[in-house]
Amino acid sequence: MTAHVDELIPYGGVRADEAWAEEVRRLADERDAVLLAHNYQLPEIQEIADHTGDSLALSRIAAASDASTIVFCGVHFMAETAKILAPDKTVLIPDARAGCSLADSITGEQLREWKAQHPGAVVVSYVNTTAEVKAETDICCTSSNAVDVVASIPSDTEVLFCPDQFLGAHVRRETGRQNLHVWAGECHVHAGINGPELAERAQADPEADLFIHPECGCATSALYLAGEGTVAPGRVKILSTGDMLKAAKQTKAGSVLVATETGMLHQLRKAAPEIDFRAVNDRATCRYMKLITPAALLRALREGVDEVHVDPETARLARASVQRMIEIGKPGGGE
Ligand code: SF4
């Protein structure tokens, strides 16, 4: 299990200046490494990376890359997913303590017990899960294709959906499906973005669009606000991080309230500098993500650590659940 965030002290003492950037690039070349950074990483890590994006898009870039080493600046399950899709490459994460409270919401053992209670049910897991949970899963999903994945399962078949209860509630609402059982997991960062805060921000800025990640505790409240007319329905957009970037380039709104981890604001502001992007909750910061500091990245490249390993049989089973998702339709983006 991941250590509690408050117990973790990030690697420090290195400034992200030009000398650091040069050294990172030199070491990456020497190691034949591609640098990938998740949208929630520190801005300086996003800037030095070869590719920035959501978890699944990055894993697919990793698998298609010619580089023999992948340095995944994100949290551990994401680096594991890269290893599952690219088993012959060396995968490094700059700080293996970078866990995820959502992925930790369910273990392989708990999922096996849940399956035993519902024989014949199809298991759908969000990509924010460990390799062990993916190996017990029938079909993986991302936040942008979760509805399509569940809709592809015959309507008389029970579905076990894990680990995120807010994404599960979103899928149940969209599909109208009663035989969808939802695991009560959550991400501590997204769950902290709540409805009352969103309502207050939306009322104070009636012209703003609302970009909401479905893992947020406020996704239900946003739809409720739209339903009762507090916020015009067209202004509420439930989006994965990848889809937020697309929507940023298309919206006509002058300001956008963003409900997800605050690291996302960096890419949104780059994508559409003329729009005023503001966080619904500016304390919504994932400290696991922020363990990937300039010092940690340098350490990873100098020492070849922390290497991510996935047992080959677990990787084979986990890969099958990711492949089934890709066969169903648009793979979209993960977190
Ligand atoms: S923001 Fe939440 S779901 Fe994302 S990595 Fe952090 S703990 Fe996990």
TrEMBL record:
**Could you provide one GO biological process annotation from this protein's UniProt record?**
'de novo' NAD+ biosynthetic process from L-aspartate
The enzyme class is transferase
GO MF terms listed in the record are: 4 iron, 4 sulfur cluster binding; metal ion binding; quinolinate synthetase A activity
Its annotated pathway reads: Cofactor biosynthesis; NAD(+) biosynthesis; quinolinate from iminoaspartate: step 1/1
Q: Can you list the GO cellular component terms from the UniProt entry?
A: cytosol
Membrane-crossing segments per the record = none
Keywords on record: 4Fe-4S, Cytoplasm, Iron, Iron-sulfur, Metal-binding, Pyridine nucleotide biosynthesis, Transferase
Q: Which residues form a coiled coil?
A: none
Q: Which Pfam families match?
A: NadA (PF02445)
Known EC number: 2.5.1.72
Cofactor(s) needed, names only, are:
[4Fe-4S] cluster
Q: What is this protein called?
A: Quinolinate synthase
